[in-house]
């Protein structure tokens, strides 16, 4: 029985006519960049997340880049984030000439550990008396922001992180690229920090027909700056006060996403039901000593962009499941502090033990909404067979 990691064709079949009609409307209009579809999607995403402002951009990576630059992050600065995440989180920092400062994750939700953040800022940074800037002692870089990641569809502990950041006067950019629809203490992911960043990459819970991204903010001033930066720093046509980017969400992507957005809550609920099936199955099969189900942390709604287990003999299990035509994925096999391009930052392998361990022990199982009961049971039975508990 084949079980793909994601079956976008199954989703497409349920909305095909509506998608075709929406795309046809754009083609008939011949307005492909920054038109009514983008403006409408921005309003709908803002309402969905209960924030006043949403700014469409070309990708989730660009959402991070624009947000960082809007907060004044540039060459020689530093941003605190985690080493266990998709590359774009730290890559966006580096592409602005700034330095990613890594702080380890907490091992249950794979997000920035507030206690470690607090300790890092207190011990490895100092406040300059002359201008009250926070300086990273080892590099001399001015710390400009904190960039927590809501990994796999569950929010970081934003109350604790926000409190720590406020004490140091640091703005927060939420990397919520995997978490549209997740909730933390009644607040939508992406609505809590100074900026929230989303990706509409096709594999996301709300995925387009190509790349796309969105920035959220409650600040009119920051929203205006982000809008300007996404169009080459242009405020009025051909007048540029800063150097920005070419990062515009196109009309066809917006049209497709508008068709999908009303379905997002039901799709996320279906992912949650599939996750419950796996968790019950793992426990019922006596697999908990070998494969640990995701932890649902308090005061949070998990949307299960990925259902990620921690398991013994991870790579062997993945090969076994592949032989049984079950597709899985390792997110992420190399912690960022161990990537070749970041070795110059001077971190050692053992500096972030929870991030390193997660990179060697985690495995994502298929959790997309259209999974059949038979497919899910085949996954559980196959894991049990691998560990000798069938």
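-> sequence recovered:
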């Amino acid at each position: 029985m084949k079980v793909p990691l994601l079956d976008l064709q199954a989703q497409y079949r349920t909305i095909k006519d509506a998608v075709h009609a929406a795309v046809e409307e754009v083609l008939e209009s011949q307005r492909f960049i920054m038109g009514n579809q983008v403006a409408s999607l921005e309003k709908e995403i803002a309402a969905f997340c209960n924030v006043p402002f949403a700014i469409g951009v070309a990708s989730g990576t660009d959402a991070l880049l624009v947000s960082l630059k809007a907060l004044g992050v540039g060459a020689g600065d530093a941003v605190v984030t985690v080493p266990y995440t998709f590359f774009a989180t730290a890559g966006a920092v580096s592409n602005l000439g700034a330095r990613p400062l890594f702080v380890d994750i907490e091992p249950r939700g794979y997000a920035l550990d507030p206690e470690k953040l607090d300790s890092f800022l207190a011990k490895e940074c100092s406040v300059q008396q002359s201008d009250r800037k926070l300086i990273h002692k080892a590099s001399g870089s001015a710390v400009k922001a904190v960039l927590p990641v809501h990994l796999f569809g569950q929010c970081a502990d934003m109350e604790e992180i926000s409190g720590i950041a406020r004490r140091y006067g640091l703005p927060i950019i939420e990397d919520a690229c995997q978490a549209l629809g997740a909730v933390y203490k009644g607040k939508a992911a992406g609505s809590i920090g100074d900026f929230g960043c989303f990706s509409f990459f096709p594999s996301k819970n709300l995925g387009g027909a190509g790349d796309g991204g969105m920035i959220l903010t409650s600040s009119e001033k920051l929203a205006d700056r982000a809008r300007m930066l996404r169009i080459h720093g242009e405020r009025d046509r051909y007048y540029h006060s800063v150097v920005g980017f070419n990062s515009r969400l196109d009309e066809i992507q917006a049209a497709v996403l508008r068709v999908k957005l009303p379905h997002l809550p039901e799709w996320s609920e279906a992912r949650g039901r599939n996750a419950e099936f796996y968790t019950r199955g793992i426990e019922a099969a006596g697999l908990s000593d070998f494969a640990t189900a995701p932890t649902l942390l308090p005061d949070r709604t998990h949307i299960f962009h990925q259902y990620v287990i921690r398991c013994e003999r991870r790579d062997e299990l993945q090969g076994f499941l592949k032989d049984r035509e079950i597709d899985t994925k390792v997110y992420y096999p190399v912690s960022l502090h161990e990537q070749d391009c970041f070795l110059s930052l001077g971190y050692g392998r053992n500096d972030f033990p929870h991030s390193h361990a997660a990179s060697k022990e985690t495995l994502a199982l298929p959790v997309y909404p259209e999974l059949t009961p038979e497919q899910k049971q085949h996954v559980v039975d196959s894991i049990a067979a691998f560990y000798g508990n069938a």
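DSSP finds twelve helices and 17 strands in the chain.
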